[in-house]
Amino acid sequence: MVRRSAPWLAAAFLALAALLAPPPQPASGTPAATDPLWLRAASGPFRPLAADRLWLRAARRGEGTGTPAGPALLRRLRAVMALDPAFRPALRYAATYYATVAGDLSAAHALCDEALRFRPGAAYPYVLKAVLELGYAPAPDRAAIRRWLDRARTNGARAPWLEHLRHRLAEQAP
Amino acid sequence: MPIRPVTRPSALAAATARSLARLGAFRAALILALASGALGAALAGVDLGRPRRLTDNTLLASQTLLLHAAAWLLAYQLTRDDRRLGLALLSAPLGPTGHLAGRFLGLCLTLAGLLLVLLAMDGVLLILLGGAPVWPVLAQLGLAALSAALAAALALLLMQVLPPAGGLLLAVLAWAAGHGLDEALVLAREQGGPVLIVAVEAAYRLLPNFSFFDVGVAAAGGASPWRWLFPLPYAPGYAALLILLAGRLARRRPFPER
Predict the structure, then answer these.
(1) Chain A residue closest in CA terms to B185
(2) How far is residue A9's CA from residue B130's CA, in Å, rounded to a whole number?
(3) Are residues B216 and A18, on separate chains, in Cβ contact within 8 Å?
(4) Cβ–Cβ contacts within 10 Å for residue B116, how many?
(5) In this predicted model, what pLDDT tens digit does every residue of B155-190 receive, in sequence order?
(6) ipTM strictly over 0.85?
(7) Taking the mean position of all CA atoms in its chain, how far away is CA A143?
(8) How far apart are CA A133 and CA A106, in angstroms?
(9) Which residues fall within 8 angstroms of residue B63, CB to CB, at 6 or more apart?
(10) Residue A31's pLDDT is what?
């Protein structure tokens, strides 16, 4: 009886697995020419370790050299975020570096967006985007900041200072 | 391994686990497990006073590789023994499928022993180190062991249709490709047409998808419970499917190859 019912059981299992399988991280935005998705696919279960190695190389190149950050460094940092979008210290240091030392706020936002591409449910990248925009943009986009803070709150950020900032921005909205 | 008739897969599993534990491959895996623990302890000095990341990631990467390598080598050893002695076909009253199921269970028991050693060692090391929670590392290691068991089932299946070395190589490639299915689906949804999306979606849901077993320690706090729980029935269910198929293919092998 087991032999006769085995194909049906197998088909039922596959159907159930297909229905209940968790989805991959949904992506948003347009992928760049050198898409780190291939790096993610190639590193398989070793992504966090690959992110560590890339981060150590990027951090050595970036600090104390006195030279402006080039496109290669940004590509490497984007790859770090793609490999491990939950690597919070790397995101904080790299985005802050670009916003302050390199003077390139769009690159800082690009790094946060790369992390959000693979973890859209995260709160920290939205908080970082809002703080960097507010602190380093010549003319901060307050509507965008409010949007990011709202998304951060939706994704679980509940720090008192964030709530205070949201309320102040809402009061100042035209 | 002496040819003795067994009447139940469980008895065969116990005998297989005992024989595998005596193998040089398993002893080497144990030694490597202890070495990875020593490496973790050495890296702990680097992580002191900082977010504990290098130790966690190095431990997980080295032990994931160790578990999968051990699973593949043990599957290879089982298949070679079976082929040489024709055990799968001389397995009455169990039959080839029951024989393979028992051998696979024995392999899983052996892997479970290795996993327990790793869990105990990592738990002690990480608790002594302090800092970040220990449970995400141990849970991810558990998922890696499930992935290794599924990879072994896939290897056993492929080695029924191919020579053992070729089947093993294809199994390793299939495991690597299985980890890229989530990226393939993301790419297809971003850049592909409807036909490609449907095809990749079908592959994502129906083929052995090893990306289900990667949660990521740093992302553990933000991962949904279903992300952790889905692999628990998925791995044994899919492995059973592969072993059933392997048993069917084993019936068609010529008797025995020397």
Answers:
(1) A24
(2) 46
(3) no
(4) 11
(5) 999 998 888 889 999 999 999 888 888 888 888 887
(6) no
(7) 21
(8) 9
(9) B33, B36, B118, B122, B141, B144
(10) 43
Smallest CA–CA distance from B212 into chain A, residue: A22
Whether residue B224 has pLDDT greater than 70 = yes
B47-77 pLDDT tens trace? 766 677 888 888 888 899 889 999 999 999 8
Tokens representing B224? 């949904």
**Candidates A31, A35, A44; nearest CB to B176:** A44
Residue for token pair 């297809």 = B188
Residue among B149, B151, B171 nearest B161 (CA): B171
Mean pLDDT (whole number) for A111-123: 89
Give me the sign of the Cα torsion angle B86, B89, B92, B95.
Answer: positive
Residue with tokens 């692999």: B231
Q: What is the pLDDT of residues A91-114, one digit of tens each?
A: 999 999 999 988 889 999 999 999
B51 touches B129 (CB < 8 A): no
**Integer CA distances (angstroms), A153 to A28, A122, A125, A131, in order:** 20, 10, 12, 14
CA-to-CA separations, B211 to A48, A78, B135, in angstroms, rounded: 14, 21, 20
Region of residue A26 (left: phi > 0; alpha: psi -120 to 50; beta: else): beta
Distance of CA B50 to the CA centre of its chain: 32
- The minimum CA-CA distance between B150 and chain A, rounded to whole Å, is 14
Could you give the maximum distance between any two Cα atoms of chain A, in Å?
A: 75
- The answer to whether B150 and B178 have CB atoms below 8 angstroms apart is no
Candidates A27, A52, A86; nearest CB to B216:
A86
Q: Using 50, 70 and 90 to split pLDDT, how confident is the model at A71? A: confident
Task: Name A83's Cβ contacts closer than 8 Å, sequence gap at least 6.
Answer: A36, A39, A40, A43, A47, A48, A50, A51, A54
Query: Which residues, including other chains, have CB under 8 Å from residue B176's CB and lie 6 or more apart?
Result: A44
A19, amino acid identity: L
Q: What is the mean pLDDT of residues A117-136?
A: 91
Question: Are B190 and A89 a contacting pair at CB < 8 A?
Answer: no
Residue B21: closest CA among B84, B76, B88, B70: B70
Of the candidates A37, A119, A122, the beta carbon closest to that of B187 is on A37
Instruction: Count how many Cα atoms sit within 13 Å of the Cα of residue A6 in the half-sphere of its side chain.
Output: 16
